Amino acid sequence: xxxxxxxxxxxxxxxxxxxxxxxxxxxxxxxxxxxxxxxxxxxxxxxxxxxxxxxxxxxxxxxxxxxxxxxxxxxxxxxxxxxxxxxxxxxxxxxxxxxxxxxxxxxxxxxxxxxxxxxxxxxxxxxxxxxxxxxxxxxxxxxxxxxxxxxxxxxxxxxxxxxxxxxxxxxxxxxxxxxxxxxxxxxxxxxxxxxxxxxxxxxxxxxxxxxxxxxxxxxxxxxxxxxxxxxxxxxxxxxxxxxxxxxxxxxxxxxxxxxxxxxxxxxxxxxxxxxxxxxxxxxxxxxxxxxxxxxxxxxxxxxxxxxxxxxxxxxxxxxxxxxxxxxxxxxxxxxxxxxxxxxxxxxxxxxxxxxxxxxxxxxxxxxxxxxxxxxxxxxxxxxxxxxxxxxxxxxxxxxxxxxxxxxxxxxxxxxxxxxxxxxxxxxxxxxxxxxxxxxxxxxxxxxxxxxxxxxxxxxxxxxxxxxxxxxxxxxxxxxxxxxxxxxxxxxxxxxxxxxxxxxxxxxxxxxxxxxxxxxxxxxxxxxxxxxxxxxxxxxxxxxxxxxxxxxxxxxxxxxxxxxxxxxxxxxxxxxxxxxxxxxxxxxxxxxxxxxxxxxxxxxxxxxxxxxxxxxxxxxxxxxxxxxxxxxxxxxxxxxxxxxxxxxxxxxxxxxxxxxxxxxxxxxxxxxxxxxxxxxxxxxxxxxxxxxxxxxxxxxxxxxxxxxxxxxx
Length: 712
Ligand code: C2E
Ligand code: CA
Ligand code: CA
What we know:
By secondary structure, the chain is of the alpha/beta class. The chain is 44% helix and 24% strand. Helix 18 (498-508) packs across helix 19 (510-532). The longest helix is centred in the N-terminal third of the chain and has 25 residues, at 116-140. The radius of gyration is 40 Å and the shape is elongated. Ligand C2E binds next to strand 19, helix 18 and strand 22.
């Protein structure tokens, strides 16, 4: 057995990696053949020279020395060496301090990772040298102990101090003949075990990689050096990735190798790959993945003529929560949303995060429409339960738009675009639902986008202003207050009224910003009019669903009143039934808080929605506002009159006041006054006016209207 008496020195010189021993100042005390080979120098050119002489970049030396001082080792820095011919050799290296009794030495393991040319050149050289060395080594076989000429330490010590595993195995049976101490750390098994059970290491190779590893050794040409990566499974079950650089030494009948544990960098690499295709917050596949997956699915769907559905899911009120509660809460909600969506889907569906609060779900191999409807309702259903984040409940819903392949589009871009369009439609139809794409929706979406843009510009250039429409008390025929109404005075859209832009602002979340503006202006204006006026005048503000879903709404509201030193009777709120019905429980609580603080609430647009007196009786509401459609159509339709009469009677029976809006003529006013309506509002009395017009009227004590005095 030729290798029985191999010295550590022989092994070192046959290693495919370059090994150096330096003194504390960087002078080279020892270098193996691989080092000479790598840089094209002869031994005498290298020994006793400083390492700086061979480095292409000196800075790496300093940073490496710093690491050594700090932690005793330095790993895997890309290091550029200078070849004798002037070319650059790229390497990775690991450096370690070895302390003997008196001195410090630095042990360096260098792996050449230069381009293929360099590898080939090295390969040729190593082939030649391996053959040369085979002869030389044979001569060493019988010598007992080799004198160590260059280093002040035993080379066996060197081998065991190297972080990488150095080993050689039989080139036929792959049984172990030598392995350095580092094996214990990496394999988690005592070094002796490998010697006693020479096949142990093979058994530890991860089952999936074993065949690949075996065929690697079978095909490794005599004299050549190659790298192979495989995994091992440690006794504790941990999987580790190994990078092995191996030379086949035919005359010694050995494979000699150096093994790096690259698990950490492999994990980083996996991580990088994962991140490229996944969203880091929710861990769902991302846009990049979506695109590629859709292309794959389309190819498949085309070949086997299967249908495919793209679902565009958007959270209905997320932006508002995110803006008002902070991004951390928003992030936690998104994570929970992602996990609920994933759980709701069957495994062949793909759920991806498209961006922000948008998710795209792909369904392939669809048999019939029920599959899609089932999936869509499961997805909507994910939002039935509130999201509990840090002891706080958040109510969120989702709108889903669905496009189909091949009916609606043939490309991924268009399928997504159409699903997006259908999603807008779902929002328009009242949120928390799903809608299939239809070509007629495109016009709607374009209009939506145009308005969204006008709103953004309006915010940016201060085109928004607040107008105030007088509210007349029937009994005294006097102005009692005003309703604050938002106006967008955009030069390119002079006639864009709030009934058009408010729903868009609600859908996009811009309403949050606009509401703040409305509230600030209202408070400011309330102060102005009440300073001028002898009697107290209230201002009614319209509250959007978004605002009311904020559990802190009342507190914020009251804090603002306080700040502006306004009494709670100065401001009233108007809410529509749908705002209340969106979340009846939360709304009831908010309304109770408002009532306790002395703030009156009116139910807007009454008669157009649920209009159930049953729930109305339970709500702390002081006024109902009969919708203008009933008033305007008062004399066209008898039914309208019956409705107004019934609503007024019932409201009064429940001790609520009644406001009628849409009073456009003296006939309207007369009729409503006869019915006992408490407050009148409408163009007949006054349109909404800019603040200045109102201030001038109040200052001049001019009435806003002409109404007959009440019969005394
Ligand atoms: P609304 O709360 O029902 O407001 C009353 C609407 O009726 C106003 O329309 C007002 O100008 C209009 N109106 C008043 N008298 C008459 C009349 O005699 N005849 C007719 N045909 N219309 C009359 P406007 O200002 O266009 O507002 C439309 C809707 O936009 C409002 O309906 C309200 O829902 C929303 N809105 C307006 N300002 C705000 C706001 O600051 N915040 C929120 N959240 N919504 C607002
Ligand atoms: Ca209103
Ligand atoms: Ca109304």
